[in-house]
Write a structure and sequence with these properties.
Elements: E1 2-5, H1 19-22, E2 28-31, H2 48-65, E3 75-80, H3 82-93, E4 98-104, H4 118-128, H5 132-143, H6 146-157, H7 166-178, H8 181-200, H9 203-209, E5 216-221, H10 229-238, E6 243-247, H11 254-257, H12 259-266
Parallel strand pairs: 1-2, 1-3, 3-4, 4-5, 5-6
Length: about 270
Amino acid sequence: LIVGLHGLGGSHLNWTAVGPELSRHARVVALDLVGHGLTPMGSRRADLEGHRRLVSGFLRSMSAESTAAPPARPAILMGNSMGGLVAALQASEEPDTVAGLILVDPALPTSRLGLVHPRVVANFLLCALPAVGEHYLTQRRRRTTSEQSVRRVLGVCCVDASRVPDHIVEAHVELTGRMDGARADAAYLRSARSLSLLMARPAGPLARLEMVHQPTLLLQGARDVLVPLSSARRMSASHPDWRLDIAPDVGHVPMLEAPAWTSRRIT
C-alpha cells in the first residue's frame, strides 16, 4: 500500500499523474489532509499534528480492514512538501505503521534552509500575521477565478506548468470550484502558520527526524523555489542511508511536472 500526502493547499489530485503507473505495482491511495480537498476540518486541527493524527487514524483503519486477509503490513507514505514532513513525523511517532518513505521535495527542517524565492517568503510572512493573512487570502480569492488560482499555484510550483497534463489541470480547477473557499483558506492559514513555527524552531523536529529509520527515497526538483536543492542536499548528507534523486529543470512538484521521471524513480 502506498499512501500519497499532498502539500500545503493541495489535494489528492496532486498524485493523479503518477497514480496509474504506480498502481501497476502496488495499491495506491491519496488522502486529503485536514481542511484540504474533500476532507472537512470539522473539530479537527489543520496544523501539522492534526494532519499527522488524521494520517495515523487512516493507516490504522486500513490495517483493521485487512485483518480478514493476510496479516496487515505497514504502508509506504509518499509525501510532497508539507505532506513529506507529515509523512516523516508519522514514521518517527508510529514506526509500526510505516514501511518506508517517498519524500518528494519535502518541507523538512534543516539547520539552514537556503535561498528561497522572495515571493514565497512574502506570502508566508503575510499569512503568519493574524488578521492580515485572513484579509490577504479573502481579497485574493475574490479577485481570482478557480482556473486563475490553479494556474497561479502551478506557475510557482513548476518550471514549466505546460508540462502538467491538461486533464489534470482541469480536474484541479473543477475541485477548486467545488470547495468552500473561506474554509479552505482557514485550513491553509492554520497549516502555514504551523509549518512556519516549526521551521523557525527546528531543533525539536530535527531530533524527531533522527528517529526515522525506514528506507527513504528523497526526490527533489533541481529548480524548486520553495524547498531549495541545497536543503535537500543537507537532508541527504545528514541521512546517508537515504537515496537522493534529483530531477533537472523541474520545480516543486515533480509528480505533476515530470510524472514519468517520478514514477520510474519510485518504481
